[in-house]
Amino acid sequence: MSSPMKLPVLSLSHGSPMFALETGQTGPILQNFGQQLQGGARFPSLSGVVIMSPHWMTHGPAVMTNPAPPTWHDFGGFPPALYQLQYPAPGAPALAQEVLHALQAAGVPAQADAKRPLDHGAWVPLMHLFPRADVPVVQVALPVEAGPREVYALGHALRHLREQGVFIVGSGGMTHNLGEFFGGRPELGDPADPYVIAFSRWVEDAVQANDRERLFNYRTLAPHAVRAHPSEEHFLPIFFALGAAGWGDGGTTPSRVNYMSREVMYRYLAMDAFVLQ
C-alpha cells in the first residue's frame, strides 16, 4: 500500500520588511512555488498554512486562533508604501485547535491566542507565496526559552498535518546580523560578504546530509555562526520546518531537500529557501 501524499515543508528567509516590495530573485521563486501548490495534482488539496516567525516570541508555546488576523506593520523607518500593504488572509480556528491538540498530545503545553495579528515574518513571505491571500493561516509562536531541539520537536509534533493538506513553513533568516546591516548601510545589489556565504553553505551541507546532530550544534560547529546570528531567534524557525519534515529523525527514507534560493540581499542578508519532501 502506498503512503498518503503529503504536502512539502518550506524553510525560508524573510529578509528585510522591504522584501515585500523589493522581491529580488527569491520573491518570484516563492510565487512560482505557491502556484504549484495550489494548481496541480502533485500534492493534496491545500487547506491551510501553519507558519512560525521569530517576530512572535512568547514564554511558552502559543498558537494563533484569530479568525481574521490583521496585518501588523511591526517595523519603523521604512517608505510609506510598505505601510499601505495589507494581507487579509483568513485565520483558521479549526486548524489552530488541531495544532494545539497535537502540541499538547506531544507534551507541549501550548496556549491559544485569539487576538494575535500576522507579523511581517509571516505576511511578507506569504504575500509572495499566495498573493491572493486566499489560504487560511495559523501562526505558531517561537518560545523564548527554546533552542534547536525544542523547536524541532514543535515541528515534529505537527508533521501528520501534511497529510491533511496543511503547508508548514519556518520563516526566519539564514543570516541576521542587524548591527552590520544598519552600520554598513549596504545597497540591495551589493556582493555578499564572504562570511555570509561560508555560514550559509555549511548549513546547506548539513541539511543535505540529513545530519541532525551537526545542525543542532551549529553554534559551535558552523563557521561564523555567532557573527551570522548574534542572537539565534531568526535561525530557529529552520528547525520548525525540519521537524515537520521528519528530517534527520532516523526514518528509513531520508528527507529530500530542494534548494530554491541562495540569494543574498544587502550584502548581509542570506535569503536561502529550501523545500523538504
Radius of gyration: 17 Å
CATH class, anyone? Alpha Beta
Helix and strand composition category:
alpha/beta
Spell out the helices and strands N to C: EHEEHHEHEHEHHHHHHEEEE
| Overall pLDDT | 95
> How many structural units, i.e. domains?
1
CATH architectural category: 3-Layer(aba) Sandwich
How many helical stretches?
11
What percent of residues are in strands? 15-25%
The beta-strand count equals: 10
CATH H-level homologous superfamily name: LigB-like
Question: What would your notes on this structure say?
Answer:
The chain has 277 residues and is of the alpha/beta class. It has one domain (9-276): LigB-like (Protocatechuate 4,5-dioxygenase, Chain B). 34% of the residues lie in helices and 18% in strands. The strands form 3 sheets. It has a 6-stranded mixed β-sheet with strand order 5-2-6-1-10-7, with helices on both faces. The protein has a two-stranded parallel sheet with strand order 3-4. The longest helix is centred in the last third of the chain and has 15 residues, at 194-208. The radius of gyration is 17 Å and the shape is globular.
List keywords for this structure.
277 residues; alpha/beta; Protocatechuate 4,5-dioxygenase, Chain B; 11 helices; 18% strand
In short:
The protein has 277 residues and is α/β, with parallel strands linked by helices.
List the helices and strands and how they pair.
Layout: E1 9-13, H1 26-39, E2 48-58, E3 62-64, H2 80-83, H3 93-105, E4 111-113, H4 120-129, E5 137-143, H5 148-157, E6 166-172, H6 178-184, H7 194-208, H8 212-216, H9 218-221, H10 225-228, H11 237-244, E7 257-261, E8 264-265, E9 269-270, E10 273-276
Parallel strand pairs: 1-6, 2-5, 2-6, 3-4
Antiparallel strand pairs: 1-10, 7-10, 8-9
Helix pairs in contact: 1-4, 5-11
